[in-house]
């Protein structure tokens, strides 16, 4: 497994495993504590695992948590997604940096997203399963959502949006979220 820093997001890493494929299918190690430690991350920090299933064109995000934030390890275990990370940590050297990835079941790559970064994705295939590991128990009272189509972020979503939650549809702009977080 190879760990690569994400230049646009300080503290973010892309973990790329080496799947072994043969006529039966494939085998792949998707998490390795030693590789995490080698880049300065604590593999024991994760406290919850979750999975979402989306149909093609579904958009989820952009989400983050207030307070101490939430670090995530995200992987598309089935299908393909367009994944987006936005650095919203005011003291980060990559503040407001954006990074885009295609995560898929073919590569099984996982993306580590530091606390304080917004995250969202769009399903590119008929079905896309996304696995999450997070470093704090989820508290819905800390959920923050930013408009997926905020012009300041100008995220190049690859497909027309077929569906999204009401919360995501009604999300405020980045400027409104930042103003609220500062107060």
From TrEMBL:
As for what it does, the entry says:
Catalyzes the epimerization of the C3' and C5'positions of dTDP-6-deoxy-D-xylo-4-hexulose, forming dTDP-6-deoxy-L-lyxo-4-hexulose.
Origin superkingdom: Bacteria
Identify the metabolic or biological route this protein is part of: Carbohydrate biosynthesis; dTDP-L-rhamnose biosynthesis
Recorded GO terms, molecular function? dTDP-4-dehydrorhamnose 3,5-epimerase activity
Similarity field = Belongs to the dTDP-4-dehydrorhamnose 3,5-epimerase family.
Instruction: State the NCBIfam families in the record.
Output: rmlC
**Which controlled-vocabulary keywords does the entry list?**
Isomerase
Q: How does it assemble?
A: Homodimer.
What PANTHER family does this protein's entry cite? DTDP-6-DEOXY-D-GLUCOSE-3,5 EPIMERASE (PTHR21047), THYMIDINE DIPHOSPHO-4-KETO-RHAMNOSE 3,5-EPIMERASE (PTHR21047:SF2)
Q: Which Gene3D superfamilies match?
A: Jelly Rolls
Q: Which reaction does it catalyse?
A: dTDP-4-dehydro-6-deoxy-alpha-D-glucose = dTDP-4-dehydro-beta-L-rhamnose
Q: What is its EC number?
A: 5.1.3.13
Its protein name is dTDP-4-dehydrorhamnose 3,5-epimerase
Cross-referenced Pfam families: dTDP_sugar_isom (PF00908)
Species name: Streptomyces musisoli
CDD domains per the record?
A: cupin_RmlC
């Amino acid at each position: 497994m190879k760990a690569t820093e994400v230049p646009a997001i300080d503290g973010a890493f892309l973990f790329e495993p080496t799947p072994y494929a043969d006529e039966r299918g494939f085998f792949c190690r998707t998490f390795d504590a030693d590789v995490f430690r080698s880049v300065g991350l604590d593999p024991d920090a994760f406290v919850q695992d979750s999975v979402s299933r989306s149909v093609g064109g579904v958009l989820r995000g952009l989400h983050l948590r207030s307070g101490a934030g939430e670090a995530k390890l995200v992987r598309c275990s089935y299908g393909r997604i367009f994944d987006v990370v936005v650095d919203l940590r005011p003291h980060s050297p990559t503040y407001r940096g954006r990074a885009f990835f295609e995560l898929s079941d073919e590569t099984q790559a996982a993306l580590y997203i530091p606390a304080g970064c917004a995250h969202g994705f769009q399903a590119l295939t008929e079905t896309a399963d996304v696995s999450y590991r997070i470093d704090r128990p989820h508290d819905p009272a800390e959920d923050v959502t930013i408009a997926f189509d905020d012009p300041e972020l100008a995220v190049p979503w690859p497909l027309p949006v077929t569906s999204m939650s009401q919360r995501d549809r009604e999300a405020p702009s980045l400027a409104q979220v930042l103003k609220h977080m500062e107060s």
